[in-house]
Amino acid sequence: MSDKVLIIEDEPTIARLVTYNLSQEGYETEVVGNGAEGLHNAIHEDYAIIFLDLMLPGMNGFEVLQKLRQNGVKTPVIILTARNAEEEVVQGLKLGADDYITKPFGVAELLARTSAVLRRSRNEETKEAEASGGEKVIALGDLQIFPDKYEVLLNGQWITLRPKEFEVLLYLAERPGIVITRDDLMNVVWGFDYIGGQRTVDVHVSSLRKKLELNQQTVQIESIRGVGYKLMVSRKAGLAGR
Ligand code: CA
Predict the structure, then answer these.
(1) DSSP designation for 8
(2) Integer-rounded Cα radius of gyration of the chain
(3) Which of 4, 45, 106, 233 would give a disulfide with 28, using CB separation of 3.0 to 4.6 Å?
(4) Domain span at residue 198?
């Protein structure tokens, strides 16, 4: 996999901030200041990750993202949005962005989101490579998920999940640290033609949470208000028996 990062951003200060910090981490970076050129490079070259500003001169970030996905380019995309731009975030995620960062952002957040998105995309590559055999296990903190058997082991104990709860958990667990919209969960777990509405997603997540919180603390499903959910894995807290 390429270690090259493409930054499509017309604000020099933001572009420099991303470039500087990712270079420090060993990535090769490339900055493009407009959407059309960014799209061209993204289609014709191989990048590990693309940072995409939404408000760009000429072709905006939404169009870039849409055309990119239409062209079958699966490179992970992190959109760069203004503060308080929830609708932009939702639209970006719907168009196939993998995550977002709100400007202004700190270095720690930039690096954390970058590595989470890369981890996910590398996991998917590995999974595709392993798709032909062997029992698949997803291990996150105290949680082990066996996708083929619909079984979950939590802190050494089997827990009972309803099929839809299992599917929600599996989808989140395959994308740790990534914000998943309710729409995504609806479409993947219930299918496009389901009429029940997003409330159904919330009910299942809430029930799932209760089951996961019974006896451990390392895996949590966080709510992202107005957007959806993400599964977070933390190191075991030093305090016993919270
Ligand atoms: Ca801009």
Answers:
(1) E
(2) 19
(3) 4
(4) 138-241
Res 242: pLDDT: 35
What pLDDT, on the 0 to 100 scale, is given for residue 110?
92
Domain boundary among 129, 156, 177: 129
CA 57–ligand 1 middle distance (angstroms): 7
Strand partners, 79: 52, 100
Q: Please tell me the distance between residue 74's alpha carbon and the centre of ligand 1 in angstroms.
A: 23
How many whole angstroms separate alpha carbon 38 and alpha carbon 66?
Answer: 13
Regarding whether 156 and 119 lie in a shared domain, the answer is no
Average pLDDT over all residues of the chain: 85
Q: What is the DSSP string of 145-197?
A: EETTTTEEEETTEEE---HHHHHHHHHHHTSTT--EEHHHHIIIII-TT--S-
Q: How many domains does the chain have?
A: 2
> What is the CA(61)–ligand 1 centre distance, in A?
9
Dist. CA 9 → ligand 1 center (Å):
6
CB-based contacts of 13-19 (< 8 A; 24+ apart in sequence): 14/53, 14/80, 14/103, 17/107, 17/110, 18/51, 18/110
Q: Which CATH number belongs to the domain containing residue 119 in this structure?
A: 3.40.50.2300
132 has a pLDDT exceeding 50: no
Answer yes or no: are the C-beta atoms of 36 and 78 closer than 8 Å. Answer: no
Between the CA of 18 and the centroid of ligand 1 the distance, in Å, is: 14
| Domain end residue (candidates: 104, 129, 154) | 129
| Residue 96 Cα to ligand 1 middle (Å) | 19
Those residues with Cβ within 8 angstroms of residue 194's Cβ, 6 or more apart along the chain or in another chain:
186, 200
